[in-house]
Amino acid sequence: MHAWPASEVPALPGQGRDLRIHDTATGGLVTLDPGPVARIYVCGITPYDATHLGHAATYNAFDLVQRVWLDTKRQVHYVQNVTDVDDPLLERAERDGVDWVALAEKETALFREDMTALRMLPPQHYIGAVEAIPGIVPLVERLREIGAAYELEGDIYFSVESDPHFGQVSNLDAAAMRLLSAERGGDPDRPGKKNPLDPMLWMAAREGEPSWDGGTLGRGRPGWHIECVAIALDHLGMGFDVQGGGSDLAFPHHEMGASHAQVLTGEFPMAKAYVHAGMVALHGEKMSKSKGNLVFVSKLRRDGVDPAAIRLALLSHHYRADWEWTDQVLQDAVARLARWRSAVSRPDGPPAGTLVEEIREALSNDLDAPAALAAVDRWAARQEQDGGTDTGAPGVVTRAVDALLGVAL
Predict the structure, then answer these.
(1) CA triplet 364, 358, 307: central angle to 5 degrees?
(2) Helix, strand, or coil (residue 125)
(3) CA-closest candidate to residue 32, choices 407, 367, 368, 375
(4) From edge to edge, which strands make up the β-sheet containing 220-222?
(5) Are residues 232 and 329 in the same domain?
(6) Is residue 179 in some structural domain?
(7) How large is the angle between the packed helices 224-235 and 255-265, nearest 10 degrees?
(8) Going along 232-339, which residue ranges are E strands?
(9) For 52, phi and psi rounded to 5 degrees?
(10) Does one domain contain both 277 and 161?
(11) Residue 67 belongs to some domain of the structure
(12) Which residues of 348-378 are buried (b: 16+ CB within 10 A; e: fewer)?
């Protein structure tokens, strides 16, 4: 599966700062110090209802992570999956009377278009669950061989008790885990499971549903968590720098994935930091596919909204915050974009060297994008009020905003 084209990232004078970011597993800020190549895995979409602003906010956060790393003169090895076979996708295809493969391909193509418009840097490896199946099957077989998996009516489950570190990503108690498991794709009430929290690794073929040859596992399809584990281990290995996604993935998805990988390899942890973006609401409720209260990037673009304004709207909220999309949020972003473009359109302006460092400082401090925007606002206000004589300043600001914030002026 191919990703989307990369926009050029301008080089800035000097060098960026190492990133301090909130780690869900420890509950505090950690300073990431990758080697020459920083490694990040971000969980991708299940391709229906793409791309809503909740998606966009999440991928914007991890785009900033990449930009901070690139500014430190590191390379970035970024991997993202597409869950192109799963119960919700099949249910949507059945509801709409369309082929599930066609639905997945259509929505993935739309996602690519939106990511391109928003100037999100693409992953080096963009892998669908279906194409990952040949690598998934041996992992499930291995887990069964070492006693970390068991069969139940043809389905294969992972035993969470096989991982002594289980629970150390989300740090939730058993009751909270059970509740979230039921809400987020698990089956804690299924009779016969060794532990209600045990997640499915391999679902035996069901009549009328797609299935693949699973070798000794029989025909079927992979569970949700093992999909990402197979892709991450194949392309990044253990101990990569950041495992990212929305806050609703901390449990069960990232918790279970970490346990799968740790039992398979005998190494801990799977990732150095588990980083989660907040949720976006509309009319007082979190945007969700089940509720249908979604605002789509493609619809905004069709309505003539500049993608740079959409991106500024996302950047105006701290990535970990839960926030609400309103018409005012968009209007403020459109106005900010106009002010910035007016400010850099002049032949000279106030010196901007300190501005670059202000943006770097803000982003290195747990991706504080609102503080970075405020710094640019201050420079634009000085430009509007007093102007300046530095002929290089508008170009410096334009390149810094592009390189570090992904906004084209």
Answers:
(1) 80
(2) strand
(3) 367
(4) 149-152, 155-158, 200-204, 220-222
(5) no
(6) yes
(7) 50
(8) 240-246, 271-277, 280-282, 285-286, 323-324
(9) -90, 170
(10) yes
(11) yes
(12) ebbebeebbebbbebbbebbbbeebbebbee
Contact between residue 207 and residue 230 where contact means Cβ atoms under 8 Å apart: no
The pLDDT score that the predictor gives to residue 287 is 82
Are 253 and 222 spatial neighbours (Cβ–Cβ below 8 Å)?
A: no
- Residues of the chain scoring pLDDT < 50: none
pLDDT at 119: 98
Tell me: do 255 and 361 sit in the same domain. no
- Residue numbers of the domain that contains 179: 20-286
Q: Look up tokens 């800035």; give the residue.
A: 12
Together in a domain, 121 and 248 = yes
Amino acid at 103: L
Last residue of a domain, one of 252, 286, 320: 286
* CB contact at 8 A, 152 and 106: no
Domain final position from 241, 260, 286: 286
In this structure, the chain runs to a length of 409
Residue 235 structure tokens:
């392309």
198 in a structural domain: yes
| Strand pairing category for 37-42 and 271-277 | unpaired
3-state secondary structure (DSSP) of residue 330? helix
Q: Which residue has the tokens 């998606």?
A: 55
Contact 402, 359 (CB under 8 A): no
Nearest to 256 by CA among 275, 277, 298, 228: 228
90 and 192 in a common domain: yes
Angle between helices 53-71 and 100-117 in degrees, nearest 10 = 50
Same domain, yes or no, for 194 and 335?
no
Domain count, the chain: 2
Judge if 212 and 318 occupy the same domain. Answer: no
The separation between the first and the last C-alpha atoms of the chain, rounded to the nearest angstrom, is 31
- For the beta sheet containing 37-42, the strands, ordered from the edge strand earlier in sequence to the opposite edge, are 125-128, 75-82, 37-42, 240-246, 271-277
What is the DSSP pairing of strand 37-42 with strand 285-286? Answer: unpaired
- Token code pair at residue 172: 């939730």
**256 and 179 within one domain:** yes
Distance separating alpha carbons of residues 386 and 389, to the nearest angstrom: 10
